[in-house]
Amino acid sequence: MSRYRIAGLSPEPFATLGALDDASLRAHGMRRIVADSPNGYPCRISLADATPGDSVLLLTFEHHPCDGPYRSSGPIYVREGATAASYDDALPAFLRTRTLSLRAYDADGWMRGARVAAGAEADAALAELLDDPDTTEVHAHNARTGCFMCRIDRV
Asked: Which InterPro entries does the entry mention (predicted)?
């Protein structure tokens, strides 16, 4: 039986954005960027870093829409044309190459705990947070830039 599941964001809300020109994207606070390195543009749909030459969109995403003080949004990259990936009881490789801030929340959106861990140590930190039976989800953020990486759901 799985303890947790990580699912990439649905591509549907972002599908029409690729047709917008750069001026239209900027008018909505978004940017189109061409990846120029293999590990600087983590796609929140595919749960993988974009490869150099891939077109990604940088935009604000509300990742914790709770009705309370922990409501949050922040910058994310989505690769144009990406398909959603998912992982059961395993962290995607793009998390293992970064220092992470892991934030645990209960069903009401209240923070239950938090850890900062190097990607190689993230499994142990995640296990500690999921040991709290009231934790329903954990949000992974890039600890350096603060960007939301993914949501990890207890199953």
From this structure: DUF1203 (IPR009593)
